[in-house]
Design goal:
The complex is a heterodimer of chains A (684) and B (328).
Chain A lengths: L1 E3 L14 H15 L8 H20 L6 H18 L6 H18 L3 H21 L3 H22 L14 H23 L23 E2 L3 H5 L5 E7 L10 E7 L1 E2 L4 E2 L2 H8 L3 E2 L14 E2 L5 E7 L13 E2 L5 E4 L4 E3 L7 E7 L4 E2 L6 H8 L7 H12 L4 H15 L1 E2 L10 H9 L1 E2 L1 H14 L4 E8 L2 E3 L4 E5 L3 E9 L3 E5 L1 H5 L1 H6 L1 H5 L20 H22 L3 H12 L4 H26 L1 H4 L2 H15 L10 H11 L5 H16 L4 H9 L3
Parallel strand pairs in A: 15-16
Antiparallel strand pairs in A: 2-6, 3-9, 3-19, 4-17, 5-6, 7-11, 8-14, 9-13, 10-13, 11-12, 17-20, 18-19, 20-21
Helix pairs in contact in A: 1-5, 1-6, 2-4, 3-4, 4-5, 5-6, 6-7, 11-14, 13-14, 23-24, 24-25
Chain B lengths: L1 H19 L5 E3 L6 E4 L2 H18 L3 H25 L3 E7 L2 E2 L3 E10 L5 E8 L5 E5 L3 E10 L4 E2 L5 E5 L6 E5 L8 E3 L27 E7 L11 H5 L5 E6 L6 E4 L8 H18 L3 E5 L2 E6 L2 H12 L14
Parallel strand pairs in B: 4-12, 15-16
Antiparallel strand pairs in B: 1-3, 2-11, 3-5, 5-8, 6-7, 6-10, 9-12, 10-11, 13-14, 16-17
Helix pairs in contact in B: 2-3, 5-6
Chain lengths: 684, 328
């Protein structure tokens, strides 16, 4: 079949876009920008939808395009809006907002293929940026889909735009050809992902810290932990190297609240880390180790775990007592916590080695700590203060004070999620009037009473327990597992753990918050349809656990893949890695890859498909050429012999015979391949 | 300095290309004569990939890094796809039109795709000419033409044809530089001019014998370029050699266009004037002959005659001659 086709073409770059090309662009752009609209202000979405719908209208119905002046005006307006919303415009949100607006405006004004490419390149970047906000399997697949659609739109831009495509001729063919490229790229992507070295961050990433994320806060007022019991959101997951420790020892420390103003308890350790660096030790940094580090004896059997934390926008991390970590950018504080230099704005993974049997030398509490952990504002809670003073006057030791208080709680108090609102003397009210409270009320009362009796004490907040997912030997810790407990100072022993909740409601610690609270109307009140509410329906629970273990695999294998795991993989594959060995492996890999490419080229080459005799003849011909014979393409074998006879000093009967055989083969259809082979082998 | 360096680079490149892709009537593209390199668009692609990598590294986000690596892998597979889009295609010249200097000359090309896959976005371009873009479906041949701007008379040598593709993604360009054998002859630009001498020959009763097709006049020595109908085959078979039958024209006065008539003009002006005259005579339906220094074309009439004469003008004084014969 012969097609007749005449095209005279101006330069490709200046070509108008066809409708089909624009259609694919609209599709790519819409899918790419879909997820990010949830993270930018609503006006951005409106701002972007207007150009897109205008363009669609032009596409569908025809009509004039907007003049460039209008687009320029819109750009100025958008920049003003961005400045109004974020000043200074640093950080992820203003950046992604600007990107989307650029993309939408460029889309509005684009006329030729070159401008369309700008939109496409912005699309690739937006597809990647949205993964900084969310890292679920779903979002990742969506990003891959966006990239494939954008590639398709780019592929369409390479097609002949002079063909009058219409929507009727829409086909999925371009998607197929791009899909093929994408499919072939997957193995290489995996190899690069596994072996490409990871580089640490180049500069401090600006992030907005006021992002509202539910979770424990560094200021605790009565009822703030109870609020969290309304939520079944995941706080973090923990994978263990070995057996999961019993639930009663799982106290995930996040904050140490020492400062008390009569109403709220505050953690100031974070601010002090930044100012003097004294209370936080970053193992990787070149500062000398602080003195307090010597007071903590990291002893006994270490417990290793990997924490996969959901974003909190905060600096604190979650770890069992006496945590240490060698991760870059992670520090240990004097309050036996782990903190991160960077706020946790996206899901992170960190490895922790905890020493549950740690000891403290406990000889000195420096004057500043002593003051902060004894300080009570004078005017509040006179009745509790009176009780404490009377107990202290009996000469009780701190341990005796605690056990007496706990037996008081056991006999007279009730553990409940929602004890109602308290007045200014909240601790008095809780101790003597209502006698009902949640963990933070008990912890606050304990610390208050101990301080009033002259014992330094502080509140520790974090999470307690967690749900075991046997599939993956890991724990899921939810917001409703939030907890607060107390610590008091004993000369010679250091800070001693005391959880008043164990006294009033030991089941909370043994069985977990969910088991105790599930009948409470306020429990998970914010997540009416949460699967966590329906754990008693067996198959639903089974489904929930399976889904979470898939997520856990995703989180631990893809999101948590780091230099350490890369090194483990190398070691697992190639044993101990010496430079020499590395070079050998790399050369073998290079040779294999080049070989594969070469084979592929040979396999698809036309050369391979030509008959062998033809190739032999060509080679024979080129040998004659080298010998100085003047040959034209298309000479027959007999003409070849003739020419060689005249010009080749080495001409012999073999050449004549070969030419004759070739002539017979090509023109008379004689099958004399064996003779030709034999004669070719016999080198004269 | 720079231009001479560039010149020497060009020469060496041409030498190297000559070894790999000598002149041919038909070029089959394979890894031996295909070249591939990132295109200008790749810069944008690279910038985006680097920005993605920076974002992934700075936010320590493995998924963004995975997408970055995906982009890299796409680039690598596109190398193969782009290369494969040209590999296996065959290109050949099917014919060249004639043109007057300064006009456009059309070259007819065949692009054949014997493979099982469609080849899209193939662009053919000779140095300055407008590119031609075409799609070649699987197992088919596409005829196309390239129009080249001509500058001066003689054999047209536009250099190497550039066959390229950036399909499927535009970030890579695969190309080849076949040197296709052309028989493209450019006639002089027709520019009428008053004869400066030999006015009297116009009258027709003069010194030169007139030859026409009407009445047989006798036999004369055969000269190249004479129509076979005029060869005296009887005499040839009798072994008297090639002779030409000449005819006395009585009713028609054959026109003699003589190089010497334009004495005083430069070579090119003379050729242009003769060219214009030939066209004029042909349009009038006249019989006309041509005398060039060392060449005589007896009078005749018809399109073939005209082309023969114009060709003689086109190559007058030029010694380079392409192999093969012109075939009008």
């Amino acid at each position: 079949m012969v097609n007749q086709k005449f095209t005279s073409s101006p330069k490709t770059e200046k070509l108008q876009l066809s409708r089909l090309q624009q259609g694919w662009l609209v599709l790519a752009l819409s899918v790419t920008c879909l997820p990010i609209w949830f993270y930018v202000p609503i006006w951005v979405a409106i701002f972007c939808l207007v150009p897109i719908s205008w363009r669609l209208r032009v596409l569908w119905k025809g009509g004039a395009q907007l003049s460039r002046k209008v687009t320029a005006g819109l750009a100025v307006l958008a920049s003003a809006f961005v400045l109004w919303q974020w000043y200074p415009p640093i950080g992820l949100e203003p950046m992604s907002t600007l990107l989307i607006i650029c993309c939408a405006l460029k889309f509005l004004e684009m006329r030729v293929i070159r401008e369309a490419r700008t939109v496409l390149y912005l699309c690739y970047f937006i597809a990647a940026i949205q993964l900084i906000y969310e890292q679920t399997v779903f979002h990742f697949l969506l990003a891959v889909l966006s990239i494939i659609l954008t590639l398709t739109a780019q592929n369409m831009a390479e097609r002949d735009p002079w063909q009058q495509y219409s929507f009727k001729s829409f086909s999925l063919f371009p998607l197929k050809s791009v899909g093929w490229i994408a499919l072939v790229s997957i193995p290489l992507t995996i190899i690069i992902f596994l072996f490409a070295p990871r580089v640490p961050s180049f500069w401090v990433v600006p992030v907005s810290e006021d992002q509202a994320v539910s979770g424990i806060s560094d200021t605790m007022s009565p009822g703030s932990i109870g609020e969290l019991a309304r939520s079944s959101k995941l706080a973090f997951r923990v994978g263990f190297e070995d057996e999961v420790p019993p639930r009663r020892s799982l106290y995930w420390r996040a904050l140490v609240l020492s400062d008390y103003d009569g109403q709220a308890w505050t953690n100031r350790e974070n601010f002090m880390t930044i100012q003097d660096g004294g209370r936080t030790h970053f193992p990787g940094s070149n500062r000398p180790a602080p003195e307090w580090l010597d007071e903590i004896l990291y002893e006994g059997q270490p417990l290793e775990d990997d924490v996969y934390q959901e974003p909190t926008s905060q600096h604190w991390l979650f770890a069992l007592a006496a945590p240490t970590s060698q991760e870059n950018g992670l520090g240990m504080t004097k309050g036996l916590r782990l903190v991160s230099r960077q706020p946790i704005t996206q899901r992170v993974k960190y490895s922790v080695t905890s020493y549950p049997d740690y000891r403290m030398t406990g000889d000195v509490l420096d004057y500043r700590d002593r003051y902060r952990n004894l300080h009570l504002p004078d005017e509040f809670n006179p009745r509790t203060r009176e009780l404490a003073e009377s107990w202290a006057s009996q000469g009780l030791s701190p341990d005796q004070l605690v056990s007496r208080l706990f037996s008081l709680f056991r006999s007279e108090h009730t553990y409940t999620l929602n004890p109602g609102a308290f007045g200014t003397d909240s601790i008095d009210e809780f101790m003597f009037d209502r006698t009902r409270g949640f963990c933070e009320h008990f912890a606050q009362a304990t610390v208050f009473l101990l301080r009033a009796a002259g014992v330094p004490a502080r509140i520790v907040s974090g999470y307690q327990g967690g749900e075991l997912n046997a599939d993956g030997n890991y724990l899921m810790v939810y917001q409703y597992d939030a907890h607060a407990w107390a610590e008091y100072w004993v000369e010679g022993r250091g800070w001693v753990h005391a959880d008043p909740t164990t006294a009033v409601s030991p089941e909370r610690i043994e069985m977990g918050a969910r088991e105790i609270l599930k009948e409470d109307p306020d429990f998970l009140a914010d997540d009416v349809f949460s699967l966590a509410r329906m754990q008693d329906i067996n198959w639903l629970n089974w489904l929930r656990l399976r889904m979470d273990s898939v997520n856990y695999l995703w989180v631990s294998w893809i999101l948590g893949y780091d230099n350490e795991q890369q090194f483990d993989l190398w070691q697992g594959l190639f044993g101990d890695l010496s430079i020499k060995r590395l070079m050998i492996i790399l050369s073998v890999l290079a040779v294999l890859i080049m070989g594969a490419i070469g084979f592929n080229l040979w396999w698809i080459s036309e050369e391979r498909k030509r008959p062998r005799t033809q190739r032999q003849f060509d080679q024979f011909r080129s040998e004659l050429l080298k010998a100085g014979v003047d040959l034209e393409p298309g000479f027959t074998p007999s003409r070849l012999a003739e020419q060689s006879r005249g010009q080749n000093p080495n001409h012999d009967s073999r050449i004549d015979a070969l030419c004759q055989l070739f002539e017979q083969h090509f023109y008379a259809g004689v099958d004399n391949r064996q003779k030709i082979n034999a004669l070719l082998k016999k080198k004269s | 300095m720079i231009s001479s360096a560039r010149q020497s680079f060009r020469e060496r490149l041409e030498k190297w290309l000559e070894r790999r892709q000598p002149e041919t009537v038909r070029e089959v593209f394979s890894q031996h004569n295909l070249y591939i390199f990132p295109s200008m668009q790749f810069v944008g692609f690279l910038v985006v990939t680097i920005m993605m990598w920076l974002a992934g590294t700075n936010y320590e986000n493995n998924l963004v890094l995975a997408l970055t690596f995906f982009m890299l892998a796409i680039f690598v597979s596109t190398i193969f796809r782009t290369h494969a889009n040209l590999s296996g295609l065959e290109i050949s010249v099917t014919g060249c039109d004639r043109a007057f200097a300064g006009d456009k000359l059309t070259i007819h090309l065949n692009v054949e795709n014997p493979t099982k896959h469609d080849r899209l976005g193939i662009v053919l371009q000779w140095t300055d000419a407008n590119p031609v873009s075409l799609d070649v479906p699987a197992k088919s041949t596409v005829q196309t033409e390239v129009r080249l701007q001509t500058q001066r008379r003689g054999w047209l040598n536009p250099g190497r044809l550039r066959v390229e593709t950036t399909y499927p993604l535009g970030i890579l360009r695969a190309w080849s530089w076949p040197r296709l054998q052309l028989n493209a002859l450019v006639y002089p630009k027709p520019m009428p001019a008053e004869p400066t001498a030999g006015e009297q020959s116009e009258g027709g009763e003069g010194q030169s014998h007139k030859r026409g097709i009407d009445d047989f006049g006798g036999l004369s020595e055969w000269q190249p370029g004479v129509s076979p109908q005029r060869i005296a085959w009887k005499q040839y078979s009798a072994g008297r050699g090639l002779l030409e039958k000449t005819f006395e024209a009585q009713t028609l006065n054959p026109e003699w266009l003589d190089w010497e008539n334009y004495a005083g003009l430069g070579t090119e002006q003379r050729l242009s004037a003769l060219c214009a005259k030939i066209i004029e005579m042909e349009e009038l339906g006249q019989h006309y002959g041509l005398r060039l220094p060392g060449q005589v074309f007896p009078p005749a009439q018809g399109e073939m005659h005209m082309h023969r004469l114009l060709s003689a003008l086109a190559i007058y004084g030029l010694d380079e001659n392409p192999e093969g014969d012109e075939d009008g």
